[in-house]
Design brief:
The protein has 11 helices and 11 strands. By secondary structure, it is of the alpha/beta class.
Length: about 290
Amino acid sequence: MRTVLVTGGTGTTGRRVAAFLRARGVAVRTASRHPAAGDDRHVIFDWADPGTFAAAVDGVDRVFLVAPLSDSDPASAVGGFLDAAVAAGARRVVLLSASAVTDAPSGLGALPPLVRARIPEAAVLRPSWFMQNFVGSHPVAIGIREHGRITTATGRGRVAFIDPDDIAAVAGRLLLGEPIPDGELVLTGPQALSYDEAAAVVSEVTGTAVHHTSITVEELTAAIEASGVPHAYARVLAEMDEEIAGGSEERTTTTVQDVTGRAPRSFRDFLIDAHRTRSAHSAPAVA
């Protein structure tokens, strides 16, 4: 192994993948639009600027691939990047997709078949929704912190939320050379919860009342768009909630256990750890 390139290297999953690999002595280069503080192996990388691709992939043989955010049809940019990566000698790519994204001829669903077609060893990770959304700068966390409310269009649909550390552990193992399992690599936590149930767990752990409000897909699209997200991508995100309402995410898998040898962390344990960390820094709430 030469060097692993981690795109989205300062993001929620990318920085965890980089840390996982570096802790095991792997040479890692992180890539994003803005330099990572204290990371001398970081390169400036912009999906909108193909001129940044060559420096990012130079000497790289494995890639953790996070597609451009807020782009509802990113295949063109990713295709050009994959061409550059293969020309530089990349043989294995681990693509971060999502459980809500299915293979399709266009849109986000075009990326998995594109990667499989271009890369000799391709793994497509399809994680469920992140537990981190409840404690960071995601709209769910902001709603908890500022209003004691979670607003979605999911109704009573359930999601097996997953800890991003578990996603990073799976990605890291595959980038270290673990055999790529056959079939779909859907990553979930150990239990599927509705947002009503998740709100109840947040309330119990933090001691602050939190409630879930379900709105229409149209209302959610407008709210997401009002936050600065382009309309097309806002609609895609809102329609994912609609699919959850229909039961698309009410499942659990053993993929984390199968690849890493340990069970995924539960939502309650994640929140307890997050709340403890926040409390240690004198923060008022888990979110």
